[in-house]
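Priority: medium. Attachment 1 of 2:
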């Protein structure tokens, strides 16, 4: 059996952000990828990164997690997005169904992204689903108007090392949690007073 010409299903996707080392600025999405067989891959990557960045604050507020955010180009022209396993993979159509060189408007892709994020909570398209979707759309509008983003990509390390914080919290200022030290100092004085 010859396997040279066979590509794995993931071979059609390529995380260009990894090769260029440019983060997608959303700590709630692990990976973004675009279709490599389509034209204007760089524009598609920038578009999907922008979508990921714009929904970062909303995802933080709702504790949404997405493992893979990827572009897809399905044969069904009406299909704009899919959510697999409540956020394991979200697939978005970025391009017009009749012209793969032309991208859909940002508002359309954003609406699809919010729809798919709602599927992280609710599977069927019922009243609960649409109520939550309406809530997310309204909240996303407010977030965009205020320019809010969650781009905290660090580990969350405490500054100042890992010293025993119970014995002496603020050594440079003389403020301590040890009550014996506080009692020895006596009462404070009135600011501006010459009396000790």
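Attachment 2 of 2:
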């Amino acid at each position: 059996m010859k396997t040279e010409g066979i590509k794995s299903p993931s071979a059609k996707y390529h995380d260009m952000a990894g090769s260029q080392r440019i983060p997608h600025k959303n700590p709630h999405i692990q990976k973004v990828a675009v279709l490599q067989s389509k034209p204007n891959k760089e524009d598609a990557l920038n578009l999907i990164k922008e979508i990921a960045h714009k929904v970062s604050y909303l995802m933080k507020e709702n504790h949404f997690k997405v493992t893979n955010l990827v572009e897809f180009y399905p044969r069904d022209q009406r299909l704009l997005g899919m959510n697999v396993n409540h956020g394991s993979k979200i697939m978005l159509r970025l391009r017009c169904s009749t012209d793969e060189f032309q991208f859909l408007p940002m508002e359309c892709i954003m609406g699809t992204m919010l729809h798919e994020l709602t599927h992280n909570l609710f599977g069927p398209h019922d009243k609960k689903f649409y109520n939550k979707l309406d809530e997310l759309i309204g909240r996303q509008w407010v977030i965009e108007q205020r320019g809010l983003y969650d781009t905290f990509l660090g580990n969350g390390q405490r500054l100042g090392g890992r010293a025993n914080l119970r014995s002496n919290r603020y050594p440079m200022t003389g403020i301590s949690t040890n009550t014996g030290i506080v009692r020895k100092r006596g009462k404070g004085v009135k600011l501006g007073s010459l009396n000790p």
